[in-house]
Structure formats: structure tokens, C-alpha cells
Design a protein that fits this description.
Helix content is 9%, strand content 55%. It is mainly beta and 364 residues long. The longest helix has 20 residues.
Amino acid sequence: MRRILSLAVVTAAAVATLSSQGKFSGYMFGDYYFNIARGGSFGSLANTASSGAAPGTTAMQAFQFRRMYFTYDNDISEKFTSRFRLEVDQAALTSNAKIGTFVKDAYLRLRTIFGTSDLFFGIQPTPAFEISEAAWGYRSIEKTIMDLRGVVASRDFGVSLQGKLTENGMFNYWAMIANGAGTSSVENDKYKRYYAHVQVKPTQTLQATINIDYLSRADVADPYRPGTKIENGMTTISAFGGYSEGVISASIEGFLQSTSNGYNDGTALAGKNGFGFSLFGSYSLQPDMAVLGRYDYFDPNIDTKVAAYGDIRHYIILGFSWKPDKNVSVIPNILYEAYENAALTNIAYDASVTMRVTLYYVFL
């Protein structure tokens, strides 16, 4: 008992010391969900893992915490700041099916290394959809399309530069070199991912971004030409445009991803090209109430050969947000995901429909 009390005192003292030096923050979101409709062959769909549909069959219902964040930000000095963030995620289950925890952010920031540019080192956000996610504003409901479909990871381990291209902030840039392995701290090869991003803000209500990244990878063997190695790198180009003024916001985001020799069409290796776009927005009925909507189109392989069919997704989100407190949101929402008929067999898949009540709250 004394040891427990001593540990508690030491922990409390450590937290108090950290609090005096930096800032803690944290938020959580979860739901009660009910699957209104789900096809019996849902689990056999191509790319099921990236589906926006909630898990389970028709009439499956559950309470769940989908995400929890605990963050510590510290100004080490006038030049250096740092962030350490833990994520608790039900998708990151431990070996005994407990909710898993991992390091989401761990980076050091050097302010104004030159001009208006800051240098970041460590596990940090990637440029691809940081701005569009902020414009969407409802991460508690769903990830943005590139995050949801696994097009680009939300985090990577590397070094980046961020700053203004013009003094008035109309043009800004973000460049990054990283492992290309997400939040993993272990790199098993020499290949890296290279990111470049430009943001344009002509007014306070309008903004646009364009991103390009290249993931270098080892050459792969060509099964149709024994002894031949061919390129397998992946290039992703994406763009975002958003408008927000007063009670209304509306945005569009799209991407094209090309993997060299990533598709075996049965006679040769060919480039695999994925495409998707997302339309989303919200309208505030009053300061504590808003309606929101979104439509995503996603095709991971746009090849015209029949074997490449059967993987298109149409994803619709509708919701109503109520804030009984500035740090608490209750959001009833409905998810609808429809699927292209299966390739070759032409089997039709039923759409997935899920009703949820999402609770989001800031606890620190």
C-alpha cells in the first residue's frame, strides 16, 4: 500500500512539474452504432479493411471508443518547442484484445531556422491532408478520404520544413523527407518518401493546396520476363479547395495515385492508378447546432480491364451536431456505403448502412 501511495505521489509531482513547464491536452470520441443494413458477402469485398462501414453484420450494435488523444506540448526555449502525443485506438488492439496505445507524435521543432521557415524532426503529421482535415472539421465522424482509404499515412518519421513563400502568407510551403513507414520507428530499407506541398490563401475565406509525394521502393521481379527487375515506386498527387465564411463551409478534395508496375493484368505488369474525390461541408443553424454532409468516390484501380472492376466505393455521410458545451459535441449521423458489382462474377453487393450517435469531448 505504501508503495502504491509513493508511486502516486511521485506521479502527481511529475505531472505537476510538466504542467508548470508545458501544456497537456486531450480529447476522446466514440459512438453507439447500429448496422441497419449489411450484405451477407460484405467480408469478401475487395479492400474490406479500408471500408467506411462499421464492423459486423446487419443488426450488429455496440458502444465503442474509436480514438483517444493525450498530448503534451512544451516550449523548451524561444527557439525550440516539442510535442509528444499518445493515441489510444481500438483498431490497434493488443494481443489480448485490449485497446492499444502507440506514439502518434514525437517531434522537435526549431523555429525560424531561416526566414519564416521552421524545421521539424521526429514522428509528425504529413502534408497530404492536414489542411483538408481541419477544413472538414469532423474527424470524430470520419477520416478524410486519403486517410480513410490508406492512400497516404497521417504520420511519418522524418524531417520537414514549413514556412511562408510570401511575407503576407498568401503562399506557404511544406517539404518533408521521411521513412514512408507511418508511425513505425523501425526502418527496414534504404527507401524514403518525399513530400512537397503548397498552400494558397487569397482571402481569409478561400484556400487551396496541391500536394505531391513519391514513395521510392525496391524494384520487383517481372514474372513475365525471368531475371528482370522493374520499378515499383508510387507517386501521389492531390489537391484541395475550400471555402468557409460565417455559418457555411464547403470543400472538395481529390487525388490520383500511380504505382509503377503495380497491377498484374494476367499478361503483363502495368501501372496501377487509383483515383478518388470527396465533397464535404457544413451549415451552422445556430452557434451550438450544425448540419454536415459528405460524399466520397473511391476507385483504387481505374484500369479498364474487367479484372480490375469491382472495387469502386460510394460513401455518404449525413449528420447533425449539437454542442451542449464548448468542449462536448453530440453528433447523430448515418453512414451509407455502396459497392460496384464484383469483377468477373458480376455479383451485386448490398449497400452498408449504419446509424450512429457519436460523442466527442475535450477532457484537458
